């Protein structure tokens, strides 16, 4: 299970309102975006692997295509 913390909208509003961010803040944001993308890929691929043949057919994906995608590591787009 993934632990998730909700980011208060006020924090995001503050960051986007700043004309310039310190380098450390920019790096932290980049890392947060990367980890979030990795987490989403992992969840999506796990869910894809659990779909039934009927569900795969509904979304136009073959079992082989689903297996290939679900087998990719989280860091590969």
Poorly predicted ranges (pLDDT <50, ≥5 residues)?
Answer: none
Separation of the first and last Cα atoms: 22 Å
**Count of individual beta strands:** 0
Structural class: mainly alpha
Oligomer: single chain
Question: Could you describe the largest sheet, including whether it forms a barrel?
Answer: none
Given the structure, what is the number of helices?
A: 4
Q: How much helicity do the residues have?
A: 55-70%
The fraction of residues assigned to DSSP E strands is under 5%
Pfam family, one: YjiS-like
Transmembrane segments: 20-40
Domain YjiS-like: 35-66
Keywords: Membrane, Transmembrane, Transmembrane helix
Keywords summarizing the entry:
transmembrane; single chain; 4 helices; YjiS-like; YjiS-like domain-containing protein
Any chance you could write out the topology, listing elements then pairs?
Layout: H1 9-17, H2 23-49, H3 53-58, H4 63-71
Description:
By secondary structure, the chain is an all-alpha fold. The chain has one domain (24-77). It has helices at 9-17, 23-49, 53-58, 63-71. The longest helix has 27 residues, at 23-49. The protein is elongated. The model has no long low-confidence stretch (mean pLDDT 95).
Summarize the structure.
The protein has helices spanning 9-17, 23-49, 53-58, 63-71.
């Amino acid at each position: 299970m993934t632990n998730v913390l909700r980011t208060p909208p006020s924090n995001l509003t503050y960051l986007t309102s700043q004309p310039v961010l310190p380098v450390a803040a920019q790096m932290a944001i980049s890392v947060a975006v990367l980890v979030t993308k990795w987490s989403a890929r992992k969840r999506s691929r796990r869910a894809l692997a659990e779909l039934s043949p009927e569900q795969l057919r509904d979304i136009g994906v073959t079992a082989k295509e689903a297996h290939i995608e679900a087998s990719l590591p989280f860091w590969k787009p």
